[in-house]
Amino acid sequence: MSDEPQPQPQQPSQGKRKRTGWRRIVPTWRMALSTFLLGALLLIGGFFLGYQLVHIPSANALAIKQANVYLYADGSAIARDGEVNRENVGLGRISTAAQHAILAAEDRDFYTESAIDPPAMLRAAWKTATGKGKQSGSTITQQYVKNYYLQQEQTVTRKVKEFFIAIKLDREQSKDKILEGYLNTSYFGRNAYGIQAAAQAYYGMDAQDLDAGRAAYLAALVNAPSQYDVVAHPENRPAAESRWNYVLDGMVDQGWLSRTERAGLKFPAPKEDTHSTGMSGQRGYIVRIVKDHLIQNKIVTEEQLDTGGYRITTTLQKNKQDAFVDAVNDNLIDHLDQKERKVDTYVRAGGAAVEPKTGKIRAMYNGIDYVKQYTPNATRRDYQVGSIFKPFVFTAAVENRSSTQDGHPITPNTVYDGTNKRPVQGWSGGRYEPANEDDHSYGNITVREATDKSVNAVYAQLAVDIGSDKVQQTAIDLGIPSTTPELTPSPSIALGVATASALDMAEAYATLANHGVHGDPVLIEKITKNGKETVPLPERRTRQAVSREAADTTTAVLRGVVQNGTATAALGAGRPAAGKTGTAEEDKAAWFAGYTPELATVVAVMGQNPVTAAQEKLYGAMGLPRVNGGGAPAAIWAQFTREALAGEPVSDFDLEPQADAERTAPPTADTSSSPTATNPGDRTPTTPGPDENTNLNPGPGPGPGTGEDRTEGGTNEGTGGDTTTGDTTDGTTGGGTTGDADSGGTGETGATDGENPDTGSRGGLTGFLPRPRGE
C-alpha cells in the first residue's frame, strides 16, 4: 500500500448554495432589511440634525419693504406704490364665520392635524412634477411660517426650513395663536394684508362683523387675490363665485354652517376700492394694468412685486396720456349733467392707443378717477364691440379670396342686397335676419357703401359667404384673443357681439395699419430691481398675420368711412385716417376705432349703473337722442389724435390694395351677390336715411354739466386730499348675443339683459392686458 495521500471523493456542498443566473441581481432579504434599516437611521438622523440646526428666526419686518416706481417712457414718474396696509387683530376680534371660512378654504383639518401633512406634500409634488398644475401641499402652519418668518422664493432650502420651523412652532404655540398669525399675515389683494385690512378694503367693515357670505369671499381671495377681485376683474366673476361656493360647501361639510343658512346666501359683491390720492386720476389704473401685465406674462411674480424695489419704465408717453384725458373731458365729461339727467350718471369711457410699427402702447384712458371708478375701462372685456368688428369680416374676404354664393369675387365693389331684416342665405344654423340701423332698407348696395353705412344685412351675409369660421380666425390672427366671449363662428360674429376690450381692438387695428404685420403688444420698456439688476423681458414676436393686400384693401375701404360714411367727425384729426364706428346692442356702448399711419386708437363710451354695476342703455345721455360711435367716440378720437401727433410730420397711407379696390362702381347685375331678396320690390334703392353720426356729435353740446366728474390731471403726482368711494362695479355684463351694435336688430340667440348673466371664460387674468405669450 502506498504511503502517498490518496484523493478523497468530493462531498456534496453543505450550507447555502451559490446564487446563479437572474437570482444574482435580486437582493436577499438580509440585504433589503439592512438597506431599509440604514435608510431609516439616516432619515431619523437627518431629521434630528435638521431639527437641531434650524431655529425659529425673527419675523420678517414688512416695515422695511420698498416701494415700486412706475415711469413714463421718458423716465418721468407716474406713481409709486408699496405701502403696507395691515391692522393686526386678536382672534377674538375676528368673527367665528371668518375663522371657519379660512379653515374651509385652506386647511379643514387644522385643529386635528400636525404642523405638516406629508401625504399632501407628496401629492402636490407629484402633480407639479407630472405637469398637472402647481398645488400647495402646505398646512396653515407652514403657510404662516412662510408669510411671517421666511421669504417667498420657491427653493428647496426654504421648503426645508419651513418644514422644521413649522414643527417647532407647532410645539411652542397654540393652534389659536398660529391661526391668528396666519389671518394677520395673509394677502387678500387691494394691498390688504390681514383679515382686518381685507374686511375694510372689500366691505368697509371690521373683521369681527364679517358674516358667512362675506367671509367666504375673503377666504376665496387668499387662493388667487389678483384673479378673484370681481371689481377689478369682472370677467373672472364666474371663477370667483365657484371658489366662494367651494368655501361655503366646506363650511357645511365641517358642520360650521347650516344647510338652511347656506341655501339663503347670495354672492356678496364687494364695494369699490378706496386709495390714497397717490393713485388718483389715471395713475391707479396704470399701476394695476402694469402689475397684471407683469404677473400674467410671468415677467415678475406677485410675490416679487410685493417685496418692492422695482423701477418699471412703461411705453406710455406723458403727452399722449394727457391728450387722451383732455379729449375725453372736452368731448364727453363736460357735456354730462348728472343732477338733471340720471342717464348721465351711467356714462363711462375707455380707450387705448397703439403704435402700429412697434406695438408699443402709448396711452390708455380708463375712467375719470381710480379712487372713484375702480374698473379699468381700457382693458375690461364685458361690452359688445359692435360694428367696429366689421372690418375684420372684409379682411377675411380678401385674405381668403372669397366669393359670393353665385361665384363672384368679393371686392369693395361687389353688390349685396341691403334690405332690412333680409334672411341670411346659406346658413344652416337656423333663420337669421338682422335689422339695419333704424330698420332702414338699402336695396342693392356695394360692400364699400355697406361699410360706410354699417349695413348689418350685408355683413351678416358676407360672414356666411366667407365662412364664419374664417372670419373668426382672421380676427384672432389680427390680435383678438381666442378666448373672447361670443367670438363664435356664426353670422352674428360680423355684427360685433364679441366682447373684446378697447386695447384688444386697438391691437387688431394696429395690425391693419401695419400692412397686416402683427406683433406682440408692448407695455414695458425696462425693469430694474434695487437700481442695478435688470429684469429680462420677453422678446417681441412679429408675423405676417394677414396679407398686405388684405390689410391695405381694408384700409382703403375704411378711409371712405371717415370721408363719406358714419365717421366724418374723425376728419377733425387733420390727418389721413381710416376707421369704423360701432354701437352695442340697445346703445349700451358706442365705439370708434381708427388709425393714421402713426397711431391706432380705439375709444369706447359705455353705460354702467353706479350702484348695481349692470350695463345700462345710453339713450338721452348728454341730452342727445342716442350715443353712437360717430358722435362722442369719434370726436374724442379726432381731438386725441390731433393733439397726440402734434408736431409730427403728416404722412399718408402707403397702400397696395386689391386690384380696382379704389374704383367706385355703381350697382350692376354683373357684380351683385347671390341670393336675391324674396320680395323684388324691396330691392329698389331707397334714399339713405341718416347715418350713424348725424346730429350726434356733441360739438358745443348742451353745455358743461356740473363738472364734478371731470377727469383730473392725467397721471401727474397728486397732493393731499380725501379718498372717495365711487360706484360699485361687480363685473356684470348684461351682454347677450343679439343684433348688432349699430342696429339694435334681431339677434341670433336672444338677449341677456340680466344684471348678472354668465359671461363664460375671459381667458384667466386677461381681463387686463396683454395676454400671456404663448397662450
Ordered list of secondary-structure elements with their pairings:
Layout: H1 29-53, E1 68-71, E2 77-81, E3 85-86, H2 96-106, H3 118-129, H4 140-148, H5 156-172, H6 175-185, E4 192-193, H7 195-203, H8 212-223, H9 225-228, H10 237-253, H11 259-263, H12 283-296, H13 302-307, E5 310-314, H14 318-331, E6 347-354, E7 361-365, H15 390-399, E8 415-417, E9 444-446, H16 447-453, H17 456-466, H18 468-478, H19 502-513, E10 517-519, E11 524-529, E12 533-534, E13 542-544, H20 548-564, E14 578-583, E15 589-595, E16 600-607, H21 632-644
Parallel strand pairs: 1-5, 3-4
Antiparallel strand pairs: 1-2, 5-11, 6-7, 6-16, 8-9, 10-13, 11-12, 14-15, 15-16
Helix pairs in contact: 2-8, 2-10, 4-5, 4-6, 8-10, 14-21, 15-17, 15-18, 15-20, 16-20, 17-18, 18-19
Describe this protein's structure.
This protein is an alpha+beta fold and 775 residues long. Helix content is 32%, strand content 9%. Strands 2-1-5-11-12 form a five-stranded mixed β-sheet, with helices on one face. It contains 21 helices and 16 strands. Helix 2 crosses helix 10 (237-253), helix 15 (390-399) packs antiparallel against helix 20 (548-564) and helix 17 crosses helix 18. It has helices spanning 29-53, 96-106, 118-129, 140-148, 156-172, 175-185, 195-203, 212-223, 225-228, 237-253, 259-263, 283-296, 302-307, 318-331, 390-399, 447-453, 456-466, 468-478, 502-513, 548-564, 632-644, and strands spanning 68-71, 77-81, 85-86, 192-193, 310-314, 347-354, 361-365, 415-417, 444-446, 517-519, 524-529, 533-534, 542-544, 578-583, 589-595, 600-607. Keywords: Carboxypeptidase, Glycosyltransferase, Hydrolase, Membrane, Multifunctional enzyme, Protease, Transferase, Transmembrane, Transmembrane helix. InterPro entries: Beta-lactam/transpept-like, Glyco_trans_51, Glycosyltr_51/Transpeptidase, Lysozyme-like_dom_sf, PBP_transglycosylase, PCN-bd_Tpept. Pfam families: Transgly, Transpeptidase.
